[in-house]
Give the backbone structure.
Amino acid sequence: MTENNKDNHIKTEILLKTQDLLKKYTSELKDITTISLSNKKSYLGNIKFFDTENIDEVKSELKSLFDAYGKNSFNIENIQSCCTPNYILISFKIDI
């Protein structure tokens, strides 16, 4: 497997597993961005999460999933808009 194919495989695997996990929360991850540095690859994504009562549970489940791939971090923001329902934006980064 070439390096590019391996990267695409990991990206697709993370995307599908995350989407599967989020189904029970009626939330979705549309895509993941890959960043290549000389010594590592990073995968970045954003999730709009409307189920504010379960934010701790979903963060814990995402952390368990992402721990299998490497070092990871999260940023969680409450988004309040005049034109859309309020939601929580979960941004994540996985370093492999």
Notes: The chain has two helices and four strands. The longest strand covers residues 41-49.
